[in-house]
Amino acid sequence: MSHADNVIDFTLFRKRKHAQQMGRWMWALYAQQAGLVAQHGFHASAVPKAPRQA
Hints:
It is a single chain. With 54 residues, this protein is mainly alpha-helical. The protein has one domain. Helix content is 56%, strand content 0%. The chain has helices at 10-34, 36-40.
């Protein structure tokens, strides 16, 4: 195992976290528009309005 195998690629890490954040945001918007907010307690206000830039 080389030393490079243990190094965290922060670019990929940020991209993955950003994709997770956008997925949660899109699901919250879908749930809000579908009327699931009142039924299941989903709410888009807990998700940031714009993605954070690193």
